[in-house]
Design brief:
- By secondary structure, this protein is of the alpha/beta class.
- It has helices at 120-128, 140-145, 166-175, 182-199, 201-212, 229-241, 245-253, 255-258, 261-271, 279-282, 290-303, 307-313, 319-329, and strands at residues 8-11, 17-20, 30-34, 42-46, 51-55, 64-69, 74-78, 91-92, 109-112, 133-136, 157-160, 219-222.
- The strands form three sheets. Strands 8-9-12-10-11 form a five-stranded mixed β-sheet. Strands 1-2-5-4 form a four-stranded antiparallel β-sheet, with no helix packed on it.
């Protein structure tokens, strides 16, 4: 039988959709079809894996799919990773079940890396999302050097929320631009994530205020790569909505699937003057590891009796604000 919470959909930049599922029995027969029928759509099933590819769908629209088995189990889901050509880690982080069984709405909560390299096709797709708000966590110099490409008609409001972790600046000052081995960079990234929870709470509190200030806002949170500053933002939003830490971590780790550190090495070398640094020592700065987000969550539990208290005291999300957020974004 089809496992309803194990359906995963993503779109590649060439427009093809990949639908992945898991079944409790090896003889389970699964069919996939787009909710809006298209004569051009073709489903290609892989006999050796629990996966199908669907081609021929319009690239400038989002598509929902029905995934069914022969026993009547049906899952309705959208693509989680959108097929952006200019930013590989653009994802919808709705569609998750909360601890009490409610569903985070699809099509309202998005996360990504920078938007400066979007293609015309990407911008057209972005326009269909009808975003109201974009929260940009990049430093001011990043925002100025690489301005976002956004739809000209009805563009979303941009909330500039620059995050420059104190541990980041301190680390660069201490090493004087000469980095050590891989472990030193890994430890640095762990400390940056602690910094998000402890020293950047006012910025993330402002994020929540920006979101709640726009009625039923469809919003995007993003930074340069869409994994660290953005990863913590998505985590606290999902936690406020009542999603379990286990599922929050699963969403966080999807970056490992869609973001290639090796493709970003040259950009990072230039950005931080790392031309003389060994690739292996740089990679932890571009990777995603459970230890990173776990350190941020540990900082919360070490300093607050519960996530709920942290949300209220550090992020300004008391019971009234949390109820408002859940009324908007949960079904």
């Amino acid at each position: 039988m089809l496992v309803s919470n194990a359906v995963h959909i993503w779109r590649e930049s060439d427009g093809d959709y990949y639908i992945e599922w898991r079944a409790s029995q090896p003889d389970t027969q699964v069919t996939v079809e787009p909710v809006i029928a298209s004569s051009a759509a073709q489903a290609h099933y892989d006999a050796d894996t629990e996966q199908a590819r669907v081609s021929g769908l319009a690239p400038a629209s989002r598509h929902f799919f029905r995934v069914r088995d022969q026993h009547g189990t049906e899952v309705l889901a959208a693509e989680r990773k959108l097929g952006m050509q200019g930013t590989p880690n653009f994802r919808d982080f709705g569609g998750y079940r909360t601890i009490d069984g409610r569903l985070v709405k699809w099509g309202f909560l998005f996360r990504s890396g920078q938007l400066s390299n979007l293609s015309d096709q990407d911008v057209a797709l972005l326009a269909t999302l009808e975003l109201d708000l974009v929260c940009d966590f990049r430093r001011l110099e990043e925002q100025e050097a690489d301005p976002s490409r956004l739809p000209v008609s009805n563009p979303p409001r941009i909330a500039s929320l620059p995050i420059s972790p104190g541990s980041n600046a301190q680390f660069f000052e201490q090493v004087g631009g000469q980095f050590g081995d891989r472990q030193a960079m890994f430890d640095f990234m762990v400390e940056i994530n602690r910094d998000f929870a402890e020293a950047q709470s006012e910025t993330y509190a402002q994020m929540f205020r920006e979101i709640l200030d726009v009625e039923d806002a469809r919003f995007l949170v993003h930074c340069a790569a869409g994994k660290d500053r953005t990863g913590f933002a998505a985590a606290v939003i999902l936690l406020a909505l009542g999603v379990s830490q286990e599922v929050v971590m699963q969403d966080y780790m999807l970056t490992k699937r869609f973001f290639s550190p090796h493709q970003e090495i040259d950009r990072l070398r230039q950005k931080y003057q790392m031309q003389q640094m060994e690739t292996e020592s740089i990679l932890p700065m571009l990777e995603v590891h459970e230890d990173y987000l776990s350190r941020a969550l540990m900082a919360i539990t070490q300093n607050y009796p519960s996530i709920e208290v942290y949300l209220e005291e550090a992020l300004g999300m008391g019971s009234t604000e949390v109820a408002q957020l859940r009324a908007r974004y949960l079904d």
